[in-house]
Batch of 4 targets.
Target 1
Amino acid sequence: MSLTILLALFGHWRRNPLQLFTLLAGLALATALWSGVQAINAEARASYDAASATLGDAQFDRLVRRDGQPIEQDTYIDLRRAGWLVSPVIEGRMNGARLVGLDPLTAPAGITPIAPENGQDLQDFMAGGGQIIAAPDVQIADAMTDPNIAPGTAFADIGLVQTLLDRRGELDALIILPDQSIIQTPVTQIAPQLSVQVAQDGSDIGRLTDSFHLNLTAFGLLSFAVGIFIVHGAIGLAFEQRRGTVRTLRALGAPLRLLMALIGIELLVLAIIAGAIGVGLGYVIAGLLLPDVAATLRGLYGADVTGTLQLRPIWWVSGMAIAVGGTAMAGAQALWSLSRTSLLSGAHARAQSVMTGRGAWVSVIVGVALLMIACILAFVADGVVSGFALLGALLVGAALLLPFVLRVLLQLAEGRAKGVVAAWFWADTRQQLPGLSLALMALLLAMAANVGVSTMVSSFRLTFVEFLDQRLASELYVTTDTAAQAGLFEAYATPKADAVLPIVSTDVTIQGRATELFGARDHATYRDNWGFLAAADDAWDAVHEGRAILINEQLARGADIGIGDSVQVGANAYDVAGIYGDYGNPIGQAIMGEVSFATQFPDANALRFGVRIAPDQVGDLRQALEAELAIRPDAMINQAAIKAYSLAIFDRTFTVTNALNILTLAVASFAILMSLLTLTSMRVPQLAPVWAMGLTRGALGRLELVRTVMLAILTGLLALPLGLALAWVLLAVVNVAAFGWRLPMYVFPWDYAALGGFAVLAAMGAALWPAVRLARTLPADLLKVFANER
Amino acid sequence: MNVKLLCALFWFPFAAAAQGFAGLGTSVEDFAVPTPGKVFDFPTDDGPHPDYRIEWWYLTANLRADDETDYGLQWTLFRTALSPDKGEGWDSPQLWMGHAAVTTPDAHFVTERLARGGIGQAGVITDPFAAWIDDWAFEGPDADARLRATGPDFAYDMALSATGPRVFHGDAGYSVKSAQGQASYYFSQPFFDVTGTLKLPDGEVAVTGSAWLDREWSSQPLAADQTGWDWFSLSFDDGAKLMGFQLRGAQTYTQATLIMPDGETTAFPNGAFNAEPLDVTAAAGRQVPTTWQVTLPDIDLDATVTAINPQSWMDTSVPYWEGPVRITGSHTGRGYLEMTGYD
């Protein structure tokens, strides 16, 4: 009997292949969106883990010299003999790769490619000529390759690297091991020239890339929500469409339990098929987007991701989980309602099935509660996690309230309606709302996310362009190779240009944070172009008199430094006279007057220069510099070129975001299509009386289209404030927590209008086919409502 | 003679060298090999012998607090050479490993340090004598030495004073390890009086007691069939001391040295000394004998040796068991037990 029932159930699909397609497509799309985002995340994380596992400096506190100079090897020995468990690091470049020298005997576990337990490896690494172990992309002769090493990196024993770099007796940093002995002499007594550079926080690249992943994770969650709505819609559709078949089977004597079990098995098989297709599609999505993710991480944070996709079991697991789990969730509800359907009530249309009565009020109460939580979090959220909690509460709360708000709006419209058709239209729309609400929620979330993310990106871009204008004020930037060439250049260029501004910097530590300290010449260029987020009066005067420094926002927020605070830089203390925005920079930055800089750091030479000159003379000066001073052309960069390059990096950053935005919206439209298809088939009994009273099938079809577009517009209008709230959370909460800077928020009405137009078009596209089908319903079918069913 | 030889040879880098890996272009023949008849020369022989592959300064102490609680203390510095070459700085082939431990009746604190030779992080010099790795040090003349070590959860600082002469094991310091003739140079200073402070998680403890220093160096691996080692240093209440070990292999190989209170020694050949396990303890997932019946009929010794803390497992990169013991039976006293090869 089971086989016969299965064949009967399957027969439905054979007769309606389109319905089978929509079910499979809906499930597969939801799975694809979810597993695609997860795949990108997993891949980027895996690549990044390989990088951070070998970036000892990123995970551990380090000791460095305050003045940025190399550490004497004897200092290392002094510290070890004082009980400090520190491990030496030296870094340099070789054949374009980052060459890191470590001592495998003292380095913390996990940061060297070999461990002391592996006797033979260790011996090869240290003894004889030593062994270089490099990432596969590094070109160094005789190097052993290891895929677990971050791209562009090579490791060797510290002694070998000192020799290769011709820096015997020098170290760049000392990693501080996490587990120290209980007795130590303070570092300040042994090596006062050293200071601790704290890992993590603002200076930790890992946390920056984490924030990018969080961004993607948020999209993953959003796609999960949208996916669940779609799966729900697809399963609901499958059940509603087959009500008749089920009734007939039961009437023929098929036991309810057996029938339910078989439907369950059938759903499981379909879920597995659709899930497999979805994971495959997700793989394609991830494969297309990953190069942009890689470019983003590299451009914005300097972290290397390989950009190629590997098939990882976790996608299959998570992809199949959402397909099967989502189906089970939706199927359980449908099966439950099926089990409660009396055999005699049969194929009655149940357009008003879901989300009415008590269920609707539960949604309203939960929605209001979530929005209240969001309001509270808006005031207290101060981290990435609480920021995302705020986002989640806001989005889910708003989605749950959507049907209620729409119902209220429709009731208002109904009250003002004139004429019987209008009154029927509004009442009928309201009555259909429960069946459409899941799809509309998906649309609301997709549109809100679109508004929010595009607001963030556009605000970011606008701010970034302004920032570039202020920062890249000089028309030409020249990099010289040696101090001697720098001297020649300054002497040569100064009379020819309006001004030559040396760019001199050194790495220092300010309040435990790695900071790049610049020495600025006293010139109007800075005073005219440099914008501050906050500044004391006469900030530049204080800087050039050697009393004060300027710091970037990252340093100010990270170390909790405000205007007027005094900070120690090198040997002297300085007031903080100004805080400036410094977008895209992961570490702290500070500016000191040229004179005090030169006094404190006499060894730091300016090799780079900004040249102020009329833009039309830039070309001539370049040629002269090349001819007279043999400065390489690639060492001279026009301001315009830098700006273009910076903007190109920036624009790639958000390619992924945009692509996911569009994809989400498209999938939401698909949900509308499927919901409408479900409703259309159910609504024939409700429309038959209206048709019988004189409304033509064409008019009914048109009204159907109008209804969908109107609901989309209403949803879109509600999505706008939600999206703006989302943008605010992203800019003012999540961004500050993740990146250390706050962005001003700009509003882009035309973008929103365009998005609204797109959403309406998408809704119209989704509604067109069901409307046409409705308009073409055979009069005979409509008549059957009166003839057969009652 | 200690188990570290075995551990080190089979676990630490020089294990690879011992098997003649080509990476170094050296084989055991390039290192010096102990021969009988060596005339020891002090203080030179207190210092390192870089021509030999492995060497250690191995100190254990039985300590007691005012409340009669027994403690054990270990301070060990191992030297190993990746090759007999004389590299400078980071190129030095000499590696150093330090183990420090404190054993109480119910806890065992242990920590380890590794260091490169040639850069000053670890080493041994003579006149004045100093052996160190990082902040751990054993320094000063035998009559007035100081011993320090720190770990993440303990530290100690001890003053040592030798009340007797150095003693030489085997044939005047030439100690044979197997029937095939593998050997090492081996002498001890078992007459240290100790006083000092243990710093433990529960606070500081003032202790006194006695310590035993072993000095040993060699280049040769043990015989291939020798899989483990049980080593005893026993101090009897009558003032005499006994060093005895058995190497477990196809055939058990034993050696022992009786040390009289005045430093006079008697060496016993293979087979005279015997140790049988009476009870085993599960320590770090291994079955380790922590109670032994020790016999040496020539001196009427028939005693039971019991671990004060059976969980004295050394969870270091070269794992083994090492801890203080109590002696009962024909003789009474205290001592140290070291065991390896119970994997």
Target 2
Amino acid sequence: MIHTINQNIYLPRPAIIKELIVENSQIKTFDLSFVDEEYNKTFTYAPGQFMMVSIPHCGEAPISFSSTPSRPGTLSLSVRKAGTLTNAMHELTEGAFIGLRGPYGTPFSMDALKGKNLLFVAGGIGLAPLRSVINYCMDNEKDFREITILYGSRLPSDLAFTADLDLWQKRPDTTCLLTVDQAEPGWNGHTGVVTTLFDKITVDPSSTVALVCGPPLMIRFVLAELSRMGIQDEDIITTLERHMKCGVGICRHCHMDNKLVCVDGPVFNRAELRNLEVAELLT
Amino acid sequence: MRSKDGKNNNMTDKFILKKDHLVSFLRRLKKEYHLVAPVKNIQGDTMFTLVDSVDEVEFDLVNQAVTSIKPFLFPQQETLFTYETSANGDYRFDSVCNSQPTVYFGVHSCDLSAVLYMDVTFSLTARDPYYLEKRKNAVLISVGCNEPSENCFCNAAKTGPFLEYGFDLQLTDLGNRFFVDVGRATGQEIVSKWQHFFAPAEEEDVKLQYQTYLEARGKFTRQVHMDQAIKRLKSGKVPESIWSELSLRCQDCSGCAYICPTCTCFSISDRKLSEHEGERLRSWDACTFSGFTRMAGDHNPVDHRTQAIRQRFLHKMLYDVQKHNRPSCIGCGRCVGICFGGVDIIRFIDLVTN
């Protein structure tokens, strides 16, 4: 009865690593396609969603899309070495197989972003899910107003997605500012945590939606700063990372008060997070 | 089903099964189903057991079984699928599911209510095929509790001591005979198929059944103010200090969650069987464990020193009320007996309501 993937939500589909991009010493981007060619044609997802990734003998972990569905044929997951599974994943080479199931989670509401100025604030691997949104917006530029991207990393050599950063910096309608916590020889750019970039931009709080992803501490400070700038809670959107096992709202590992991050999130606006016990926002 | 004066409106779903006929009836059932029933083991504990031979076991329909039937529908560990890789890197998955038509006999009302709750858990946001396959194969024959155990509070949880729905058949012990309520379609089929075991209930039986039910309701020794606790939790008037106070006493053993008929948190992991083969396992887990929310890199969004039991109690007593309009504590009292830190749900309810 439950031997086919359509009936069994826990069965992954085999996928192959088509291309592997080394973003930095900690992050790799995996361009993937399903072994089942027919399935590739029908598979769709939305920015902000994630896949459960299986690696032989390592179980599963949730990984956000870093690619945009507006570029069909590409399905990219960007992965930072953090635990057993992600370390094993970093050992894989092009042509290797992994297992995938999904897409899961509530995505960014792209319709709600239409006609708005968009302010993206990311730290480290946190740019991965936002890269999906940013490139989606670039591909549908008529729908959105000005795009501002603030991206911070620990060291200049930790900056990920540098090919994208170059493209975004070259666009006339886009502001893309980078910062590092600590400079290295050859770094002429800004130094300081990502919130120090806020002084360099002007934001119209009434027409701006901010999208934020990064380490917990960064999220806390950035959200506070955005509120101080006058942006409404509903227009401050973040995506959270949690330990997950099922990805579909049953195992409860990703509980956050009465929410489950896998189905109610991972994308939340600040209004939804108010009154919740959210680790990222506790002071 | 029953009018207020206890009079029966529909005699065709009320039967009598003589106790002398019980074993023969179960013997017949066992020819077509696996049989799981509360059986007294050699230590004297009543456990739900897969019955091999109905003639060689001692059934115990009175005492509460140590565990509920949860482990049969949601095993402590089960293989979801096996996987294989090959030298060229291929990665294949092969689903595993073994489920047989099974009669769960002698299930107390609270435990049956727990199954109804699990039905929601395993189908609401996604359909869990492993649970649902076993559930589809399950026939539930419950027995009302004439004598609630000392920690029972199903009266407060509104899950017993007798049920109005959810069972295929519900038995009430009337001394030398069982009163039989027919619930779902499979119950009707069983009664029709083995009708020689079932005599239509007389008016007297119906009255006695109702009287038994009323008497049982009066026999609870615990006063547990569940409704009041829920009201206080909803109002947000419960002080935050309660969580650290209770969490400090939690010994991180998860006995409460494992014994609980409605706790269904689980983990998923791989077991390597050889270089190229393995199986994916699902195992019970518990939100009270400090590792439950810990992420790679050791970041933990929940501070378990002060919050270990917060999710467990709020999930049961507040979040499920917000979502489904009823709590998911079924009042079986098992966690009261098992917790050596004294962090059971009655203590919690008492703390909230005092």
Target 3
Amino acid sequence: MPDSNANLVMEAKNIYKVFPGTTALQEVDFRIYRGKVNVLVGENGAGKSTLMKIIAGIEQQTSGSLLMYADGEEPKEVSFASTRDAVKVGIGIVHQELNLFSDLDVAENIFMNKEIKKYGSLYIDHASQVKKAREVLKRLGQAVNPKSLVRDLRLGQQQIVEIAKTMIDEPKILIMDEPTSSLSIQEVKVLMGVIKDLKREGVAIVYISHRLEEVKELGDYITILRDSRLVHSGLMKDIDMPGIIQKMVGRDPKKFFIGQEHQCGKEILKVENVTLPRYGGGYTIDHVSFTLREGEILGIYGLMGAGRTELLESIMGLYDKAEGEMWLEEKRLDTKDTKERILSGLVLIPEERQREGLFLNLAVKENLTMSSLFRYTKVVHILPDLELADVKKTIKDMAIKVSSPAVTVNALSGGNQQKVVIGKGLLTKPKVLLMDEPTRGIDIGAKSDVFEIMNTMANEKIGIVFVSSELEEICSMSDRILVLSKGKVTGEFNRSDATEEKIRKASEVGHGVTISV
Amino acid sequence: MARELKNRSGSGFSIGMVLLKMRTLIAFFAVLVVFSFIAPNFLSITNLISMAKHSAIWAILAMGMTYVIIGGGIDLSVGSIAGLCGMLAGGLIIEGLRLQIFGIVVYFHTPLLILIVLLIGAVLGSVNGLLITKLKVAPFIATLGMLYMARGFAMLRSGGKTFPNLVGNPELGNTGFPLLGAGKFIGLPVVVWLAIIIAIIAAYVSKKTPMGRYVYAVGGNEDAAVLSGIRVNRIKMGTYIFSGFTAALTGLVLASQLVASHPATGESYELTAIAAVVLGGTSLNGGRGTITGSIIGACILGVLNDGLVMVGVSSFWQTAIKGMVVILAVVIDQYQLKKQNEAALKEQSTAA
């Protein structure tokens, strides 16, 4: 046992969580200590978020128990039917995604569904809400005006509002799920200060992050999950960085990514001076130029809001306002018509697969051929045998786990859905594949399948543009790396001279902290 | 091979599931059986043909509506477009087309006249489509506007009066219009044949052509459709044009059956068409539904209507019963969807 039970505030014992088709957690124990930063790490899909959702009452465990400890009392078993129950015992969660109402002001957001009311429930006392909100924000070291609309705040400030929302309940346990993923270095520093203050006040922090350096610096205790199981828990000082990575991925970290150098052929895609004006002045994409060769994987790295997604979407012709010139195999792309771009050999694997990539109530078969129906069509008639043959081949080649091509795609797991999206793109027989965060939120197995597909495609002379916010992935998969910051190219590195440090530096060019009131 | 696949995926479902899926058809037969017991002469050939005639009109409108709804839209203007097209046809037969510049009046042959009116319906549908795709007006609002405009123009065409006695004049060569509504071919009314022909084409397009599949894609997920290279605006335009076309045909048939066109014809027909579509299991959220379902839905409404009249139920009750049937259908549909998703998840988890 890493510490005496004296400082324990909460313990999860032998937690199982079963979803249709997958087991997200099995035999997981997790302890939370008062006044400490309790770090939880693991690969995407390891079960971190599920565990946190159970502790915060958003999901209920299939089996296992949650115990709350209080001074000098016997531990008490608790069960949460909803987040409300969890809030009552003092558990707050700051989600990875922002859950804010952008057209309401900061104070209204902070007091959402816990408004200060007067005269029964007839009147919201907004003046006291604003006052209290100001106090909380001050405690968080932020001079954010409680009366400004959330849509007018910078991303980092919005994240602070998200934390303030939870702080208003004076939680004993504060869960932070990837709070820094969208912050600049300076904003992270502010947040680190806030966390240290909270620690001093005796709040137990549960901290989830992908940024291991951050975790190492901040954490007191560490718990590591892998493939839905607990693989390690103990004091942070007893484990070193390679040890953490080793336990997270379960094999030698160097061997995990199947990156390889590719034989690059002639130039296939040339993008020159692409700009996309931002609503309200400035540019989302600011004169970006690059080239891509046959069989090359070009990694594009950047923080949230750097313009990565917009760049790929501009290349697909999705924005009427985008300007700049593009050549595919020396053929100029003039019209901004997505269909023509697909026909000429470009295809995009979008970032949000369910929102932009899939037709959830259609079958796997129909999803797969949606972009390439022209190849199975005679005059106006779809040739069913021809279509089915290619569908079956794709399912086999990409190892999509599905009982029949007629299954609707919403019954599939995240990884298999992602393979359907990629399969749909590949069936158009592209020359250039634009992949936007293709490994986000899928399990390790599916992830390495995706990498293998990428390597295969590169070996078949397809040029790949690969956007990812996971530095390790970018570094190991790419032949060349382009770094974007605030819509500009701020760095370009070859495989041989790219280091995570250099890339990160380049990605933060232009991100200064400005405290606005 | 495709059939074998369908069977395999079906085998995972229970008998209850199959019954649920076929509920519209079962409901249709249930209605037929009930009325055949309580209504005398219900199963007589004359009555069956008359019911088929009524159902065919609903079915034609419902098929256009089905495409629009699967594509994620709604078309409230079909009743008014039917009314306007009926008036235009009546006007062309009675008054002809006055070309003031040449100082002549043109009377069209009936087949040409029908084609012109159908074309006008399609053009009105394309106005809906343009408003929705180019000017980004919400479908509900755009077609609501068209509902009022078309009805207004229908009234203006005659100053609110009826064009009576649309038999044409042998001297002008424009006779034969009543045949559309009253004519028969191999024992069945022309309307029924028209409905059958449109049904075959509409069902084929929705199942076997890229166009049909794109309609499902656009209604299911417009963003993904754009990224998949589907020309979303063209697909939407197509659905509204087809809907306008079916509305015009309905208007022509109604005018022909009455041998007169009245500007109020087709009022609230859009609601019946939507009801038929919903009865047939098409989701108002788009992306899900079938042509056959809508046809059966139209038949249920047609039979229910005529049956209740024959039994002597008051028309007030008829309206109330129709409403209950539609709501019940949607409730069952939601239940089926939930069960179906559960079954698919289960099957998938045993496979993976």
Target 4
Amino acid sequence: MYKSGVTVWYSVSNLEQTLEFYTGKLGFEVVFHDPSTGMAMVNTNTKDCVIGFSEAETVEPATSSTVFEVINIEEAMNSLAGNGVSFIGEVEQIPELVKLATFVDPDGHNLMLAESLAEV
Amino acid sequence: MSKEERILRLSQELTGQWTLPILLSLDENGGRFTPLQKKLDIVPSRLSANLKKMVADGLLLHLSPQERRHPLLPEYVLTEKGRLHREAARAVELSEEQIGHGRLSDKLWGMPILLTLNFEHGRFQEIRQSLDGITPRILSVRLQNFHDDGLISKQVLEEPRPSFLYRLEKEVKQPVKQLSHDLTSLV
């Protein structure tokens, strides 16, 4: 029934500012950008998983989280902090499952880094 | 309210710089703010103010972020009244094209004055009385502009006392009559 592919869509207030964040700070690549309609998409490090953005007059921060898996959360945090990403609070740990670090994009949409602690 | 009054009111509700373009462009731009703003080349704050007024006038619904199930879905949709006004806007646009003097509905009271003349109200006071809320000054300015542009004629009447009689020029008469007919079917 399903085929490979997940897109997370966000309403954003300023598309250029958003793209600067997702490309300049997070290191993703723009795969689609149409300024005339205020739409854009960036890829992630996961095949067929992309994030879409649509400019809107009114934007409310999304409460759901898009979570990016990393190998080592402290190293990843240091790397992103060096790009100007600010993390909210300390690293949270769910024992034997995952370590989580929270940050937000320019519109306050929740984003997270996750390092899995579960043995594969 | 008579049919004539309803037509004049409808045409009055379509005057102004942005109402008509927004009504005509909203759907083709997906009901979204940014494409509409880029298409109309309007300052965002001005578009916001116009949309807010159109929501207050019952022409548009503003969907909240929670009501939009996807960021690409419309932020604004036409109400039933809005769809009727869009039909009226198309009729106004058509008559403007036929008259060939650019947009006439972008100035307050422009189209209502031409429609009033179509209803054979030709004297200044008659026009003023048929357009609820118009000031003598703006009526005077519009009549002068229409006369300067060759859209209306001005005839001096001596009796019962000296005054002007305004009439639509021949080439303007048919488009305005057609507009009146089109709006009649909508009110």
